[in-house]
């Protein structure tokens, strides 16, 4: 099946190379600011707010910054520059760029686009949840702050400090009951999907509609929307930070966040967490950086842009920790419990811990609106920029079909519609379990690490790190530091292989919501999602070798095997 798809894409790619004056212009960024904001919107997302602060606390506080910075220097920045420069040099998306610069490894492009497609299906469900919470935040009394709602059970207990000391084992909080009974209507088993929750389905449809109109005109519309979606979250983060540090108990929360524990450096899990955080938060191996870079002018200084964006990304993660943990410290003090009892990561932070903290503040509706608007904007630009990268990559493969008349708009509509229909599975009572399976397997850390190794080998050894460095010099007028060539050849693949090995050694079955262990069929489905992208690497390489005449040495000397500078500039 995958081989058939790859063959069809290759045929269209070759047939689409002939020039056609009726084709719509591919487009470029109107200014450098649009490029910087678009990339910032893509890489700075929910993981910066709800994953990095938790990992920092969990893995030794300030000590976690040691492996984090090491992975950033050895893997994050070199691969970030590689992908951005590759797109700018070839002026093609994720698939076309690899097909032109290193055809044997073009499976990297197909694999990355498959991962984007998977992420588009499940990532937007988070925004549907956030929109539901945002609408609920305009009520006179926040519905998750008390137990007087129709969905509350007799076991529900409020947040009063006096109630915390005599809670029974079966007691639940109003915020958990709102999340599980009102928002999700969560089933007890992954085997019971149930019917679609029409309110969440409407929220999902609304968010997909917004995404469609953000992307439908390509770089012209995307470049304008990011001025709002990429900057507004910083305004909200600043508001929440100022409010958070002014709360009683904030200092205790910040101390928990940064308190160093040097013994944690000996734990391999700490290094794995640091590596996967870099890959997730920098959008590496998803093809989006290549697509966004392809809209740049040929002589744009992508080298300096790389450093600016990487600094912005990591700084945002670090500062977000102060905003989050200052509020968690306040909540722990109000409840009279230890901070460790209220710290959560992922959706648990966004939809349980933080809403609970907000409900204890003066003017809770205001802070709830600010928080969920920030979540929406952080996720929205990541979603539609990923969608733009996917559509552009397909457009580069089918230029004569898509880049004329309304071909792009129709393709985008079809992608949004299919992703929306699949996403309906995640707004059922058992949808949270499906979401967690998608989240864990479709864009897993192991997959990203494997693609990173292949990218480094393709550029560092097959194409040549020196040659790629010269290509960058042709664009910006000077060569990158020699450390980048060293990373592409040795350091990056070595670090990725080591982390990949650790991830396999410490692999354990996925635990879903409420402690439910994923059944065998769910694990099989998850690994199928993983293989649906990773398998395209060897399949394409085999297909390419079988259909290219001559021996391997002759293939490497083929003029179509590598790209020349004058070919790009034409």
Task: Characterise this structure.
The protein has 570 residues and is mostly helical. The chain has a single domain, classed as Hydantoin permease (Orthogonal Bundle), CATH 1.10.4160. Helix content is 69%, strand content 0%. The protein is built from 27 helices and no strands. The protein has helices at residues 2-15, 32-43, 46-50, 52-58, 65-90, 94-101, 107-136, 161-164, 174-183, 198-215, 219-229, 232-245, 250-258, 268-281, 288-293, 302-335, 347-358, 364-397, 399-402, 407-423, 431-441, 445-476, 482-505, 520-534, 536-547, 552-557, 565-569. Helix 4 crosses helix 16 (302-335), helix 13 (250-258) crosses helix 16 and helix 16 crosses helix 17. The protein is globular and about 75 Å long. It starts with a helix and ends with a helix. Mean pLDDT is 85; it is low at 1-9, 11-19 and 559-570. Disulfide bonds join 147-156. The chain crosses the membrane at residues 29-50, 62-82, 88-108, 120-139, 196-215, 235-258, 278-298, 310-332, 366-390, 410-434, 446-465, 486-508, 520-543. InterPro entries: Na/ntran_symport, SNS_sf.
């Amino acid at each position: 099946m995958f081989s058939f798809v790859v063959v069809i894409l290759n045929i269209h790619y070759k047939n689409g190379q002939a020039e056609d004056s009726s084709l719509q212009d591919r487009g470029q960024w109107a200014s450098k600011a649009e490029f910087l904001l678009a990339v910032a919107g893509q890489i700075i997302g929910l993981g910066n707010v709800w994953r990095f602060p938790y990992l920092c606390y969990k893995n030794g506080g300030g000590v976690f910054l040691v492996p984090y910075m090491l992975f950033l220097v050895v893997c994050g920045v070199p691969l970030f520059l590689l992908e951005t420069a590759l797109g700018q040099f070839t002026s093609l998306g994720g698939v076309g760029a690899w097909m032109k610069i290193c055809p044997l490894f073009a499976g990297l492009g197909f694999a990355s686009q498959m991962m984007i497609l998977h992420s588009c299906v499940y990532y937007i469900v988070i925004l549907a949840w956030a929109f539901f919470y945002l609408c609920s935040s305009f009520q006179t009394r926040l519905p998750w702050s008390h137990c007087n709602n129709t969905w509350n059970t007799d076991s529900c207990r409020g947040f009063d400090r006096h109630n915390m000391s005599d809670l029974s084992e079966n007691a639940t909080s109003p915020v958990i009951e709102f999340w599980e009974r009102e928002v999700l209507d969560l089933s007890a088993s992954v085997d019971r999907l149930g019917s679609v929750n029409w309110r969440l389905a409407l929220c999902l449809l609304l968010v997909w509609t917004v995404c469609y109109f953000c992307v439908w005109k390509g770089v012209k519309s995307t470049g304008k929307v990011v001025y709002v979606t990429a900057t507004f979250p910083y305004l909200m983060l600043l508001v929440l930070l100022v409010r958070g540090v002014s709360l009683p108990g904030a200092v205790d929360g910040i101390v928990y966040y940064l308190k160093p524990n040097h013994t944690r450096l000996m734990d391999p899990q700490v290094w794995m967490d640091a590596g996967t955080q870099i890959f997730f938060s920098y959008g590496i191996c998803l093809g989006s950086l290549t697509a966004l870079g392809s809209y740049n002018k040929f002589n744009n200084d992508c080298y300096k842009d790389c450093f600016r964006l990487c600094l912005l990304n990591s700084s945002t993660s670090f500062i977000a920790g102060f905003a989050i943990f200052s509020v968690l410290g306040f909540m722990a003090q109000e409840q009279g419990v230890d901070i460790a009892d209220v710290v959560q990561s992922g959706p648990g932070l966004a939809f349980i811990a933080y809403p609970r903290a907000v409900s204890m503040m003066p003017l809770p509706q205001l802070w709830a609106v600010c928080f969920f608007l920030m979540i929406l904007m952080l996720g929205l630009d990541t979603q539609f920029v990923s969608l733009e990268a996917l559509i552009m990559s397909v457009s580069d493969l089918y230029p004569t079909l898509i880049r004329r008349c309304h071909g792009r708009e129709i393709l985008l509509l079809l992608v949004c519609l299919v992703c929306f229909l699949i996403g309906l599975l995640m707004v059922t009572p058992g949808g949270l379990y499906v979401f967690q399976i998608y989240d864990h397997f479709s864009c897993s850390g192991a997959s990203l690490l494997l693609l990173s190794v292949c990218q480094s080998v393709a550029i560092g050894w097959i194409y040549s790190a020196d040659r790629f460095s010269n290509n960058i010099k042709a664009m910006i007028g000077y060569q990158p530091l020699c450390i980048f060539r060293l990373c592409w050849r040795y350091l990056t693949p070595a670090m990725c292989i080591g982390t990949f090995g650790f991830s396999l050694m410490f692999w354990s079955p996925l635990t879903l919501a409420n402690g439910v262990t994923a059944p065998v069929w769910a694990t099989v489905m998850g690994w199928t999602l993983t293989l649906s992208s990773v398998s395209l690497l060897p399949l394409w390489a085999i297909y390419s070798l079988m259909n290219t005449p001559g021996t391997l040495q002759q293939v490497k000397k083929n003029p179509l095997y590598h790209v020349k500078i004058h070919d790009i500039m034409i």
